[in-house]
Design brief:
Keywords: Signal. The protein starts with 8 loop residues before the first helix and ends with a strand. The radius of gyration is 19 Å and the shape is globular. The protein is built from 5 helices and 11 strands, in the order ααββββααββαβββββ. It has an 11-stranded antiparallel β-sheet. By secondary structure, it is mainly beta.
Length: 235
């Protein structure tokens, strides 16, 4: 469930005086990962959805292989079909799909798409898990047409990415809140929090863990849920 709109004018003036273009360094490091070598991973996916009529839970464990021939689902057990973050539902073991688990097994590709129109707001040294790390604060582009923008009443976002010495991402935190109008008299509020941790493996980037929390109100009814995905290498 990997996200954009108004950036304060002051932040725009700050960008040119940064000592280095951390966003360009990040993009270059991600582009240098072709993901040609074959890897196998176990992907565990848990979800919980809350609505007025109750709570729905699902748990799924999938053994996946990704290499030059694409993604193959080797084993698949558990709840409703896992779609990754932007993939396809209901794949049969042994079949190929280029999208189903891209977020976990080819994280560099999804990140490059997300960062295509991002803007750098801050670049400074920080720490992550007790080790020195470069910390970027970014603004994403919502990329809505004029009609869609007319429904947005307020949009707030905060995206922070921590980089290792090779300028590859260690983790990211994303917070978004959207307030919009629906139909004529109703409003929608949605809050999203995303935390992801990454792992370098051969010539690719894996999403070792991702957690997304969503909560909001639509047409007077509350909704929410969480999704947690863990990806670990197997021989």
């Amino acid at each position: 469930m990997r996200p954009r709109l108004i950036v304060p004018c002051l932040a725009l003036f700050c960008v040119p005086v940064l000592r280095a273009d951390g966003l360009s360094d990040l993009r270059a490091a991600l582009k240098a990962l072709p993901a040609h070598e074959t890897v196998r991973a176990k992907v565990e996916h848990d979800s919980l959805e809350r609505e007025e009529n109750g709570v729905t839970r699902s748990h799924r464990v999938t053994l996946v292989e990704d290499g030059p021939e694409g993604v193959k689902i080797l084993e698949d057990t558990g709840g409703p079909a896992h779609a990754g973050r932007g993939g396809e539902h209901g794949k049969v073991p042994g079949t190929d799909t280029t999208e189903g688990f891209r977020g976990e097994l080819r994280a560099q590709e999804e990140l490059l798409e997300m960062l295509e129109k991002a803007r750098l707001l801050e670049d400074r040294m920080d720490s992550f898990d007790g080790k020195p790390a470069r910390r970027l604060r970014l603004a994403l582009n919502l990329d809505l047409d004029k009609e869609a923008q007319g429904y947005i009443k307020r949009f707030d976002q905060d995206l922070v990415v921590w980089l290792d010495p090779q300028n590859l991402p260690l983790a990211l935190d994303l917070k978004m809140e959207v307030r919009a109008r629906a139909m004529l008299f109703f409003s929608v509020r949605t809050g999203i929090r995303v935390h992801e941790r990454f792992q370098r493996c051969k010539d690719r980037l894996l999403t070792a863990e991702a957690r997304t929390e969503v909560e909001g109100v639509a047409v007077g009814k509350a909704f929410g849920g969480t999704e947690t995905t863990r990806c670990s290498l197997v021989p």
